[in-house]
Amino acid sequence: MAEIVIKAENLSFFYEEDDGAKIPVLQNFDLEIEKGSFVALLGHNGSGKSTLAKLFNLILTPESGNLYLFGKRVDENEMTDDELFEIRRRIGMVFQNPDNQLVATIVEEDVAFGPENLGVPPKEIRQRVDDALDFVKMKKFARHSPHQLSGGQKQRVAIAGILACKPEVIIFDESTAMLDPLGRAEVMSTIETLNKEFGTTIVLITHYMEEATKAGRVVVIDNGKKLLDGTPKEVFKETKILRKAGLDIPQTTLLLQELADMGYDLPRNALTPEEGAEALAKILSEKEKIK
Amino acid sequence: MTAAELKNVSYIYSQNTPFMKVAVDNINITFEENMTIGLIGHTGSGKSTVAQMLNGILRPTSGDVLIRGKNMWESPKKLKEFRYLTGLVFQYPEYQLFEETVYKDIAFGPKNMGLAEEAIDRRVREAANFVGLSESVLEKSPFDISGGQKRRVAIAGVIAMNPKNLVLDEPAAGLDPRGRDEILGRIREYQQQTHSTVIMISHSMEDMALYCDKLVVMHESKPIMAGTCEEVFSRAEELEKAGLAVPQVTKLMMELNNRGYNVNTSVYTVEEAKKELLRVLGGEIKC
Amino acid sequence: MLKDITLGQFFPGNSVLHRLDPRVKIVICIAYIVGIFLCNSLAAYIFLIAMTVLLMLISQLPVKTVLKGIQPVVVIIIFTAVLNVFWRGGETELFSFWIITIYLEGVTSAIFMMIRIIALVIGTCIILTYTTSPIALTDAIERLLSPLRIFKIPVHEFAMMMTIALRFIPTLIEETDKIMNAQKARGSDFSTGSLAERAKALVPVLVPLFISSFRRADELAVAMECRCYRGGSGRTRMTQLHLAKRDFFSILLTALFIASVLLINQYFPIYVV
To answer: How many CA atoms are closer than 13 Å to the CA of A225, on its beta-carbon side?
Structure first.
């Protein structure tokens, strides 16, 4: 079995209102994330998925429960600053708004920001920056200013900035929510390559089902609780539960399920139009044979 | 009468500078009255420029903008009246909220119009009702409510001005599926109840197909298609060539067509696709 | 539109001036300003104009762009000139009407004042802002001032603030544009009415702008922490600044420039001020 990089055990978190009332955001949450895996956390806004990400990155502290990062139990009180920053280096995070995470006025200077903070020698920073920009296909824009870039390009620069810190895990906190379809496609393909080529562990927080279908494993969260956990095919089969959690279901899945309900021999877990057409073509050709 | 009409309209950004960019290139679009129209296209296709020209925020470099038959730029002094005629809700409108209470924020537009206190009160409550904000929210600060609710407050702020035409730029951007369905559904209901004209700008074909009567597709500064959803999706292949994502079921039908099965590809909802497939399958139920 | 502001803008290029070490450029710029104020003879001013034109040529910037840099200070230039022409006394009377008397000294000093201001603006624009990226500039200031750290002056933090401000200026300008348009669509009027009315009309713009800035600041702070930012200690930099031959050479030229001004003042003393 692969190494577990992130392990949440009975994790709870409350949000405190102005009047002191505590509103549960996460309740007794259990989750294990394997090294090299690509996990999508799916849920509507306010389901607790972003809170979970902030707990993993030690921006928030859990109310109760245990959090293990890279096999070690995290105890904020006993942690030195150096240990804290080492964990933040190993678990990178890309946020929603591409504008609010770029620090410098020049793309390559921004990518260098992380390694500079880590005290990496100048020559190596240069190398890392070049490699990272190359990877996200933004080398052409190295000397550009971030405000000249499109949303998708900015987000790719943000990814390069995280890559330059050489993390083992990258959490994408709704990183595509503010992008147009083109930008979303760019960012998603970058994420997929990262996982496939570098074996970087990916935690993708999203409410877009098309994006979740790209992951190896989908965890559906609602009201701070785990609702479903499995491969995309296993999860998207559960249309009723997904609907209840305020999520979309791929049109293909819906269509084939409705036909399957009428007695046609069709899979209940088709995700893409190509898959759907394949299955439908099969029964159509059988019908022709009978004729 | 048409709700709005663009006649030979061009818009060029930063004209006569190295950054010159033609956003809209000599276009003609007619928006009919009393319906919901979807204006679809990529970022940079010119759709947002069109929206801002309909409200008089941008003045076309050349050509005429007619609102309800009247030329908007004939006398720039009357521009304000045209702005009241066509309400415009910008992208991420929640970032424009500023008042102490939700009520006051929705009342900002009507107040600027110089309406009497009672009329303002009536309009605020009507608008809040249209977007589904409860009475109790009205007295809250617009900064203490959720993102989805903020969006509704901002839309209500424009609806309260009773515009004959309502233009919304990406009203569902960044919302989760539940929030998106709610807001688009509310807008649809508003249109049907008030018989006004609603123009929604989006890059989601799937959303627009569900909530609009007609679609206008923009690509590279020009409209390339206009018509009912069936008409537009019957040309799905052209849409794909323009790099626009067609709804999954449309794509599925195209795939079946490619495999040699004669199915109608102009469907865009699961219901229609099911009907069409049952037709080819002969409708018999195998058990 | 707000986006068209050009003062303080960087124009990428590859001239010698672009390639100079930004620290050296700051030093040169200060020396150049000192040089401007040392000029006090007609010949020295002519020399100054020649040098400024030379700088412009070296920078390879379009003349139009450089001249555009003067635009924001035109009012100041005219004001100083008028002040000098009408209020400066002197011996040679040129023209007298009613209570106004204009002296030759007034006119000449007005002209030289104008030359000074124009040379000052163009010079700093060419040497610093137009040919140096803001980040290089902040970086240079941080390094030049770094000795002050021993007096517990937070030089790095100051530079970081500058960098972030520079980074977000275009973003905030764009945002202001957007909010203004949104409020215009709701019937706000920014261009008519009394001063008080116009100021009041800005409230619906400023409140959302502040709120959004706070939100941005908050998100940026979290993002920076996630990228292991913890102030200046233990930090390295990707770009190392090394003084090249051209840097030493340009310092030498600057010294020559000041020396020339002084010599010209001395040997061609047609005093004007």
So the answer is: 4
B22 and B127 in a single domain? The answer is: yes
- Residue A42 Cα distances to A229, A242, B148, C116, angstroms: 10, 10, 18, 65
CB B116 within 8 A of CB B104: no
pLDDT in tens, C142-173: 888 888 888 888 888 888 888 888 888 888 99
pLDDT in tens, A211-240: 999 999 999 999 889 999 999 999 998 998
Q: How far is A173 from chain C (nearest CA, A)?
A: 11
C228/A85 Cβ within 8 A: yes
Give the end-to-end CA distance of chain C in Å, rounded to a whole number. Answer: 41
Return the domain boundaries, chain C.
2-267
* Token representation of residue C204: 């619906």
CA distances to A90, A252, B161 from B122, rounded to whole Å, are 56, 45, 11
Q: What is the pLDDT of residues A263-275, one digit of tens each?
A: 888 998 888 899 9
Q: Please name the chains neighbouring B, where neighbouring means 3+ C-beta pairs under 8 angstroms.
A: A, C
Q: Crossing angle of helices C104-124/C74-87, nearest 10°?
A: 160
A contact set with B (CB within 8 A)? 44-46, 150-151, 177-178, 180-183, 207, 246-248, 250-252, 254-255, 258-259, 262-265, 272-274, 276-278, 280-281, 283-284, 287
- Report the distance separating Cα B10 and Cα B6, nearest Å: 9
Q: Does C64 touch chain B (CB under 8 A)?
A: no
Sequence-ordered alpha helix ranges (H) in A13-59: 49-56
At B22, which CATH number? 3.40.50.300
In the block, tokens 């959004």 appear at C212
How distant is the alpha carbon of residue A65 from its chain centre? Answer: 23
Q: CATH classification of A4-248 is 3.40.190.10, yes or no?
A: no
Low-confidence spans in chain A with pLDDT less than 50: none
Element (H, E) at C143: helix C134-145
Residue B260, domain member (yes or no): yes
CB atoms inside a 10 Å sphere around CB C137: 22
CB neighbour class for A290 (10 Å; exposed up to 12, middle 13-18, buried from 19):
exposed
Model-level ipTM above the cut of 0.90: no
pTM of the model: 0.84
